[in-house]
Amino acid sequence: MGYLDGFAVTIRQHRLFGGKQVTTEYSGGRAAKRKGHASDPDVGNDKKIDKPERLHGRHVLNRYEDGMEKCIGCELCAGVCPAKCIYVRGADNDPVNPTSPGERFGFVYEINYLRCIHCDLCVEACPTEAITETKLFEFSFTNRQDAIYTKKELLVGDDGQPKHMPWEDWRDGDDKLTSGWMRATSPSGDATFQGVVGWSNELGHGERPPEAPQAEADQ
Ligand code: SF4
Ligand code: SF4
Which of 41, 71, 200, 215 has a 20 to 30 Å separation from 188 between CA atoms? Predict the structure, then answer.
C-alpha cells in the first residue's frame, strides 16, 4: 500500500468523516473530551476508559516481600524481546548484603519505550516473575532520555508500588493487576489448578489471590 492509500485509510477512519474512531475505542484512552448526551455520566469527566484486565502497559520490576529484587540478571527477557529494546547486565551479589536471592542480580536494566511493542514476551520468559506489566498506557515523552526507562524508574518502591514519572497519568487501579498471574502461562485454563496460587509473594501485596475461574471472569 502506497503512502496515498495509507492517508486515505486514515481520513476514512477520522471521526470528522464518520469514521469509527478506532484509536479511541481500542487504546484505553480518556473519555474526557467525549461528546454525547448530557445524561451520559462519562461526558465531560476526566476518566479513563476501562481496559481489559490483561492489557500490557508500562512495565515494573518486582521485589519479594522482604524487599529483595526478583530480577537475577539472567537476560532471558532481553534475549526474547523481538524489538531488541531491553538491555540487561547481571552482576554477582554481595554475599553479605545481596540484592536478590541467589548468585546474581540485575545490575543494569533498561527498556527503550521508543521500540517496545508491549508484546509481553519478556514477561513470559522471566523465570522469577521479576518483570511484569501494569495497565498504564497513558505515557508519552518529549525527549529520548525520558523514553529509556532504567532500573531506577522500573523497580517498585519500598511500598511495592510503581514509581510515578511526571509524564505518566496514573489513576486508581492502573497497577492493581500487575503480577505474575497475568502471564499467559498461568494455569487459568486448567481446572486442576483452579484456586491454586502459582506465583511468589510481592513486596507491598503479599500473596496475590488466585485468578478467578473462567466462568466467573466471564460474568
Ligand atoms: S513487551 Fe515485548 S517488545 Fe516490550 S520489552 Fe517486553 S519483549 Fe520487548
Ligand atoms: S527480568 Fe527476569 S528474565 Fe529479565 S534479566 Fe531479570 S530475571 Fe532474567
Answer: 71
